[in-house]
Amino acid sequence: MKNEPLENTKELDAKANDLLKNTSSGDGQVMTTDQGVKINDDANSLKAGARGATLLEDFILREKITHFDHERIPERIVHARGSAAHGYFELYEDLSSLTRAGFLTDLTRKTPVFVRFSTVAGSKGSADLARDIRGFAVKFYTEEGIFDLVGNNTPVFFIQDAMKFPDIIHAVKPEPDREIPQAASAHDTFYDFISLATEALHNHMWAMSDRAIPRSYRMMEGFGIHTFRLVNDREEAHFVKFHWKPKLGVHSVTWDEAVKINGADPDFHRRDLWDAIEAGHYPEWELGLQVIPAADEHKFDFDLLDATKFIPEELVPVRIVGRMVLNRNPDNFFAETEQVAFHPGHIVPGIDFTNDPLLQGRLFSYTDTQLSRLGGPNFHELPINRPINPVHNNQRDAQMRMTIDKGKVAYFPNTIGGGCPYLAKMAEGGFTSFEERVDAKKIRDRSESFSDHFSQPALFFRSLSTWEKNHLINAYSFELGKCTYESIKLRMLWLLAQIDGALANAVASKLGLDIPASIEKPVNQNIGADADPLRYEPIPAKRYLDKSEALSQQYRSSDHLEARKIAALVADGFDGARLEKMKTYLEGRGAVVHLIAPHGGTVACSKQVSHPVDAAWMTTESVLYDAVYIPGGNINALLSEGKVLKFINEAVKHCKALAFDGEGAQLMQASAARDFSDDEAILLDRDPEDFGDAIASHRNWDREPLTAHIAV
Length: 712
Ligand code: HDE
Fold this sequence. Notes:
Elements: H1 14-20, H2 59-69, E1 82-91, E2 110-119, E3 134-142, E4 145-152, H3 165-172, H4 188-196, H5 201-208, E5 222-223, E6 228-231, E7 237-246, H6 255-264, H7 268-278, E8 284-293, E9 319-328, H8 333-338, E10 351-352, H9 357-374, H10 455-463, H11 466-481, H12 486-499, H13 501-511, E11 565-569, H14 576-588, E12 592-597, E13 602-604, E14 610-612, E15 615-616, E16 627-630, H15 636-639, H16 642-653, E17 657-660, H17 664-670, E18 682-684, H18 688-696
Parallel strand pairs: 11-12, 11-16, 12-15, 16-17, 17-18
Antiparallel strand pairs: 1-2, 1-9, 2-3, 3-4, 5-7, 6-7, 6-10, 7-8, 8-9, 13-14
Bound molecules: CIS-heme D hydroxychlorin gamma-spirolactone 17R, 18S.
């Protein structure tokens, strides 16, 4: 299906077929104006003489320039930078005891999906490796209408109530006086806010962890975050949390790499997703559910309605129920990835909301923002947004209406239209909201059960491996080190001390500050004047679970190599036989081997065979690869090239797998790799299989503490 126009693809799912109605290609076609008039000069405007003024009459020029002038639409206020792909979802088991949603009960279905990954804070043109939460939004085109699971790559969010969303976003976005910094949270306004809104500390800790600098979109978990409801035919409801578990494991890059990747290839994640799909290595996730019986709503040490909490997998295991495969790149970025409109309020019968106050606020925001972003209320008609099942109602008119609704009737009830479109009965799949009993005072308040702000960040930190903890400490130290207000740093240190003493001490020493014994109480700010502030103060951390393995990337690995990138450093006279052996093996496991040589074009091996060069040294960087291979042969040109040593030293420092064969040993000796002859991922004259396994383990993080001296 790769590289082919949509119409040439062999198997079209229902959504691909639907998109075809609007897909167009100029191949073999004559150029026309938007009005269909054939054009025979697209380079010269109509003038009064060859050197004269341009005439207003030139409808071809006017049309072309006018359209160009209006090509831009507002970027998303958050999640502006993103990439997307098509695919499908299929179910492993019939879940009809829990839900009546067709895509979760019918084992014969392949439900088309469109998935968009994103960063949150940066602009549309910002770099992919920003330290940030990633969006993970899935649109299911089900036979009963659209279901959007608009999640993130962390299981919790920063705030508990939608009321605070504009504040946290204003705080993290570039500061409004200078519009600095772009796509970065390391600045005063963000930490001013975080240190006052202590509920944010938990998600913030995830944002300081390696999860915020993923190796690839394909190697991230996804989470629906909020507790939703599944409702079955008998109107019985269960609470549910949604999870996406990646087939390739959960992996990240180091901060040093992230900073360099942003310069070397700001589209690193976008390219990785695109290339993997084009190469036929389709990214895959399993859908997992944590199901909680309604009767257990209050049995946890936290509130299920509080989006700053996850349910540890030790308390409620994740039940794997299906898988999602992304197998087709979009044809047009703007028409699909940019115009797609997700909404947590797009649900289908069998799924329902809960009273999570963050979710409730989201239900308003998405359509509202899309009205201005996409220019009016008809954006549901855009090809990427329309469902695969028919749409009939009495909504009419407005800008850019595509549908031509026939007849006189645009109201209900009616007799003139035969009572159509008629109402569906529940048995026919009509949506009915879950009948939750509500008996309450109208009040601007927050439940005391939302007051535990420290226990889960503490559990998260305890659950990390040593290398993950070190990365997190460095991230805090970097970010707070970029703040200019000492009062903000001190407040953050005091708060970190409430979470974990060792974490706070380590960050304090890197900042060169002492943890204050006390600070002004970090009372939540947005409560009504009459409320008692003490009711909203965070309570001390509890320890209801020692550790949760699921929180650490250490336990989220896999043995897959699909679309992993390996740099083979070569120059004329290299050992072609060894390269072929290694390449064949690695490519057999789905990896991509690039020949990196002194120049573009071709490079000749010792047998005088020409091999096409994938990248010249000057056009690429070590940080763009997962591993480095030196096949040996004549390596003199490599030994005298500073870029090659930098390439290898960086790979050593970033704990990657390196394999040296034959004469490559000299390069090992000449580089930082010489100090790591016992390292399990730095291999000399070993089987390709060992190298493959080392690459699949992603990194040898045990090496990291020994690499401080390597200057790169
Ligand atoms: Fe969003 N969010 N959000 N958000 N969100 C948007 O909608 C909003 C929240 C998420 O790829 C916007 O169409 C509010 C949580 C993703 O197109 C906007 C609140 C989670 C995407 C909006 C939240 C998300 C968005 C901007 C607090 C994870 C990108 C453009 C109440 C569960 C979707 C748009 C895409 C996008 C509002 C909180 C995920 C402004 C008010 C929690 C993945 O409507």
